[in-house]
Specification:
The chain has about 400 residues and is an alpha/beta fold. The protein has 14 helices and 15 strands. Helix 5 links the parallel strand 6 and strand 7. The model has no long low-confidence stretch (mean pLDDT about 90). This is Glycosyltransferase family 4 protein.
């Protein structure tokens, strides 16, 4: 019999809703194709009464989507269930609050337990501390099933609450893609804590070295267009770079609520001709833009991991990020630059970048990226699953 894993993931993509990271579902799609691991997902969603769906078109849309009992992820075909686990608009609060997660389970946990009766998996996997981790902790106790816990984001008070400590202590394994979280948690959970980055598929690895031309800067950012991504700081650096004589073009790939403000900022600074907005694009389009650019810059804070940094590094781009978040730790100033969110620091880094420094650092970063090949990462996940299964027999 193949191993079966039931996943709880608050943040996974759903067709018709704002774009979210697909890494959790992709991991299990790869585990299925390589090792035959069976899986399905539960995405805790708001309980939206019928009358509330009449209030706004957005609520009506969510009510329709979440009423489906047969949803499958459009990219990987994995089944996704939508347990009503909280009140409308509460989901993001539940991510942060152990108290809300406990209340939600008291109100709605029985429906999840009932859905599992007669269909108990080998293993549970919670993809965030709250509410996902708390759900799998409760289900683990009821059905006597071990669980993996994946934690993301910054180190906050939720990790030292009594409930947070219990959820982590009861997990068979804890994984995190975050270098910062790994450092913060390792003193307490080193025996079962695994630093597992997001894997890169083979098509991201570019064999030919890139060459940078002195005096030209071809910059690119790939992200949601949100204030926390600090794309505005990069745009603010452009007129300074131009004044210093640089021929600079900045490509922005992604969409989001901040797009209008960023376009207005570029116009106000007189650099709208240097800023190219591409909108949301697929991987093949992104790789084509990478062939036309030299420097990947994303001053996002906070950032759990930031797979785009590593995809860009594997393509041979020079990477600039923020200190003590995201890619920093996996990559260092030996392979790129990690700075404060500061226009002047960014200008300094870019004006100090010579073709020789570019060639040296991008060679080192591409070599380091070989450790991030997806096959290696998926094999590590499979070993964890096998170890848990063996220990539970």
């Amino acid at each position: 019999m193949p191993l079966s894993v039931l996943n709880f993931a608050s943040f996974i993509p759903v067709s018709g809703l704002p774009q979210e990271n697909d890494i959790s579902i992709k991991i299990y799609a790869d585990l299925k194709s390589r090792y035959g691991v069976e899986s399905e997902f539960y995405k805790p969603v708001p309980h939206i009464p019928s009358w509330m769906g009449k209030l706004t078109p957005e609520l009506k849309k969510r009510q329709r989507i979440f009423s489906s009992n047969t949803y499958r992820d459009v990219k990987y075909g994995i089944k996704v269930n939508f347990p009503r686990f909280n009140m409308p608009f509460q989901n993001k609060l539940s991510i942060q609050s152990h108290k809300l997660a406990k209340l939600d389970y008291l109100l709605y946990g029985r429906q999840i337990e009932k859905s599992m009766e007669g269909n108990v998996p080998d293993l549970l996997h919670g993809h965030a501390l709250f509410p996902d981790g708390y759900i799998v902790y409760r289900l683990s106790k009821k059905f006597d099933i071990p669980y993996i816990l994946t934690v993301r984001g910054g180190y906050t008070d939720r990790y030292i609450t009594p409930t947070g400590k219990t959820v982590m202590a009861s997990a068979s394994y804890i994984t995190t893609p975050s270098y910062r979280l790994y450092d913060a948690l390792s003193s307490h959970y080193s025996h079962k804590l695994n630093l597992l980055p997001h894997g890169l598929d083979d098509e991201w690895f570019e064999s030919l070295p890139k060459k940078m031309e002195q005096g030209k800067l071809r910059l690119v950012t790939v992200s949601r267009l949100l204030a926390m991504k600090n794309i505005q700081t990069v745009i603010q650096a452009l007129p300074v770079l131009r004044a210093k004589g640089y021929d600079v073009i900045y490509h922005i790939i992604g969409d989001g609520d901040y797009e209008r403000g960023l376009k207005q900022l570029a116009a106000d600074l007189g650099v709208q001709d240097a800023v190219l907005f591409h909108g949301f694009r697929d991987a093949s389009y992104i790789r084509q833009i990478y062939k036309e650019t030299d420097v990947f810059v994303m001053l996002s804070y906070p950032e759990t991991f930031g797979r785009v940094y590593f995809e860009a590094a594997a393509q041979g781009l020079y990477v600039i990020g923020v200190k003590d978040t995201g890619a920093h730790g996996y990559l260092t100033d030996e392979e790129g630059n990690f700075i404060n969110i500061d226009k002047n620091q960014l200008v300094s880094v870019l004006t100090d970048l010579t073709p020789e420094i570019f060639a040296l650092k991008t060679k080192k970063s591409k070599e380091k990226m070989l450790r991030f090949k997806n096959d290696f990462i998926i094999e590590k996940y499979y070993r964890i699953i096998q170890n848990i299964k063996s220990a539970s027999i």
